[in-house]
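All the exercises in this workshop are built on plain-text protein records. The record below serves as our worked example for the rest of this section.
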Amino acid sequence: MSPRRRARHAARPRVPIVLAAAIPAVVLGGVLAWRLELWPVAREDALAAPSPSMPSQTTATATSPPPTPSPAPSPQPANTAFEGITTFRGNQTRTYYGSGPVPMHPRIAWRFPPDGSLCSTSTDQHDAREWCGTGWTGQPNVLVGEHGKIEVRINAYDGAYHFLNGRTGEQVRPSFQTGDLAKGSASSDPDGYPLYYAGSRDNLLRVIALDRPEPTALWVLNAETSVPNPVWNNDWDGAPLVVGDYLLEGGENSWFYVIRLHRGYDERGRVTVHPKVVLTVPGFDDELLASLPDSNVSIESSVAFRDGVAYFANSGGLVQGWDLSRVLRGESKAERVFRFWTGEDTDASVVIDEDGFLYVASELERFTARASEVGQLMKLDPRRPNDPLEWSFPITERGLEGAGGAWATPALYGRMVYIATNYGDLIGLDRRTGTERWRIHLAGPTWSSPVPIDDVLLQGDCGGTLHAFDISEPFREPPELWSLSLGSCIESTPSVLEDMIWVGTRGGGIYGIEDRKS
């Protein structure tokens, strides 16, 4: 197994013992407040969202003219009191990609760190290896405050959470060091609390306060001890999702959690949480385990949510929908309302469109009969649980280690769905029919998820190049607007906001990219 995949899939696998859901009683209460604290090391520069309770170098090449964005309704971010990208793919349905304009004459504005690389050594049952930079999915949080100040928050393979000035790349608060690789994506509180929700390969999911002189862990959840039988691993890859006062997260221990946060402030005005795990459900079932040759059923995707139902998939290919309506009202009962098996490892996040359809991308490693039947990109209708498959699309071309399919999360934009594959293809499909309209081959594997904004599609490849394509005419093969070399595999997903792009690479650095004309 390659270093990239080994870090995600190979740790301390286990064999399941008891398949049961533990549903503790819900603790009622909580205090709501609205505040966004950026850069608490200099409190006079703190940025506050409106609150009723608290006052408030490489060369780019351009090959065609920029498109003229066409007006179209677009999904909104989870955060409403301030501008920003607070979680992987920006909102509860994983369909917000940021906002333009996208730089049309890009240049690297800064690299963090300016010298050296973000690296650490991590050990699994295979061996110890050095890991550098940021990996899958690795999308930065980007928060905009007063006077246009921007903070970029990102986890890295040096085992730390980093907090940077989005304009300059300078640290705006000390890094928070964990005990192992800080993988995947994290989330900032969308309601304005100065809280950061992030995991690590050191077993722990953390709630971090950002209104102290240094980032401070207020609460941790241990993947090893928080459920009766952790099955596969102890990492936390998915970006936690805040829904009201609840946190939804899936772990590589193969369990899904609902956590009541009880956010508030103390008498000194400092943010507080008193979390309580109110629901745990297994991401697997007996039928799934009987269908697999192994026990790799970890949840590595970021949970999606719509109309009271949480959707997630696992490495055994099981896609589930759990109705949490009663739990989110303070009751104790959840109901599984959707089950679909892709037959293959499904680490990409479920994406939900405006009509409630699900888009699911899976890998192709086990080469099961089921995977041949349903393909590797699917559109599903959860309102037809017995026959949900609207269309399916095969992605059989093999790339890294002979695997096909996709690790990237699909992107929806207008009439199209975009997917990047392990082989290195970027494919545009008709969202209604699943018909392929075009494909472009890049340096694979392309695990970075596509980012469409203002008729521009961004895609990173493993040759280290960030590409921008003109998708103003959706059914034609898009011409390349520009390409920018960052020197090392771009496995993470970029964030775009305020005429800038932020992304990390496996070469050890995080980059801020601006328009040359800015």
